[in-house]
Task: inverse folding
């Protein structure tokens, strides 16, 4: 498997059944024990049938438990890092809380970087570079990431668009064409609003780039290219705290690559933006 097993499990976790989530949690919390135990011992401890654990490994893409265990042994050192970052505790000092937030963000970036694939980056840049217009879509907390992306890509040679209003986003998506590209951001990948936007954009023929934390989410299945952001969030998972940092970094990466690939045009666009902003600052 090209991706570390712990990151693979996290990206699929929300789509697992309750039994599968119990197995996944056990693997994440006890990687060393799983790597050195038999399937019978593990199944007994979890109170499940051997076949249930076996089927779970097949869900992850392995031929069976032996294949999974071999891959786990190879990645044992990486998996042991899962338990390093604990949740913020009530008795933690404010400094310790802040340090844990920083640790979580840094681990999120490291984990997300491991999932980046050159083929995906090349394909996304090609779609963006060849698009007539590039639109950014996101709802709720993801709208903040979309706005940041729009603000950034205004400096690129590609015409861009973004609205903070959901209904306007939906209208914009419906007016896209085969010559356009849409980047949709959603932590869960299950936001009905964002899915509706993606469906409208796809129906219009636009190319779709998705940034999400859930690899098997409905939104991810609509993407021509999908980037996965991984985070350690547990208690505040729905708030997508650390994953936002990873999503911003994915967007930053696409922006930098695009600008370097179109250096002359990019320099001209940046010069125009800097010139008009400088005029305001000097008054």
Result:
């Amino acid at each position: 498997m090209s991706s570390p097993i712990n990151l693979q499990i996290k990206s699929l976790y929300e789509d697992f059944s309750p039994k599968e989530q119990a197995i996944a949690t056990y693997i994440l919390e006890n990687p060393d024990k799983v790597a050195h135990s038999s399937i019978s011992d593990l199944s007994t401890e979890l109170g499940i049938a051997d076949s249930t654990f076996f089927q779970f490994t097949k869900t992850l893409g392995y031929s069976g438990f032996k294949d999974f265990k071999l891959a786990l042994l190879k990645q044992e050192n990486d998996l042991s890092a899962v338990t390093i970052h604990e949740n913020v505790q009530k008795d933690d000092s404010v400094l310790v809380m802040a340090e844990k937030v920083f640790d979580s963000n840094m681990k999120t970036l490291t984990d997300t970087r491991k999932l980046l694939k050159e083929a995906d980056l090349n394909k996304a840049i090609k779609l963006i570079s060849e698009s007539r217009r590039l639109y950014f879509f996101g709802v709720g907390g993801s709208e903040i990431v979309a706005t940041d992306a729009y603000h950034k890509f205004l400096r690129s040679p590609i015409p861009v668009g973004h609205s903070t209003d959901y209904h306007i986003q939906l209208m914009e998506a419906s007016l896209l064409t085969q010559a356009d590209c849409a980047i949709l951001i959603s932590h869960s990948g299950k936001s009905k609003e964002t899915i509706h936007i993606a469906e409208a954009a796809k129906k219009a023929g636009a190319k779709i780039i998705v940034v999400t934390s859930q690899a098997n989410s409905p939104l991810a299945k609509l993407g021509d290219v999908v980037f996965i952001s991984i985070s350690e969030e547990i208690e505040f998972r729905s708030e997508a705290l650390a994953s936002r940092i990873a999503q911003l970094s994915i967007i930053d990466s696409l922006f930098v690559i695009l600008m370097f690939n179109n250096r002359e045009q990019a320099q001209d666009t940046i010069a125009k933006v800097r010139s008009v902003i400088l005029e305001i600052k000097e008054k």
Summary: Confidence is low (pLDDT under 50) at residues 78-86, 234-239. The longest strand covers residues 181-186. DSSP finds 14 helices and five strands in the chain.
